[in-house]
Specification:
Layout (H helix, E strand, L loop, with lengths): L13 H7 L3 H12 L14 E3 L4 E4 L5 E3 L13 H13 L6 H8 L4 H14 L12 E8 L15 E8 L1
Helix pairs in contact: 4-5
Length: 170
Amino acid sequence: MTDFTITEDFPKSEIEFGVRFANASACYDYLFKQKWPNGFVCSRCGHDQYWFSSRKLYICTQCQFQNSLTAGTIMDSSKKPITYWFKAMWWFTTRKSGVNAVNLKELLGFGSYGTAWTWLQKLRRCTIRDKREKLSGRVEVDEFFIGAARSGKRGRGAEGKTIVAVAVER
């Protein structure tokens, strides 16, 4: 996956986000600036001239290599509009209580729960830093159980519950 870093002001509200990324063109312009901040550079030969295809590919005029803005990202080969991806990323990163697959399915109007679940798995994988260091210094740890209420034993060891452990470095 390609690493993208936010290099400008993050939208402060959903309204600001909606204005800034109102259409696919605005989303692609943002990705272009992230991938090539100093202008197009072919990833194969380094040439800086291109022509833009109807399939949203930047084709190098020297070697004819097809450069895509979404190749190597979680949006690669997606059939859904790029604006859906941007909205999903916005909700994933800004909702205080998070977003689950049912919410995402409803928010984006997906016909399939599976699509929403797959998208969230891709987004969650993006939050894991490769070569991350072990936690050090003051570390706080907590655990909790998730699952539907059932009769029987409560808390640790209850049937049908999943334990979730969380640790944070202060």
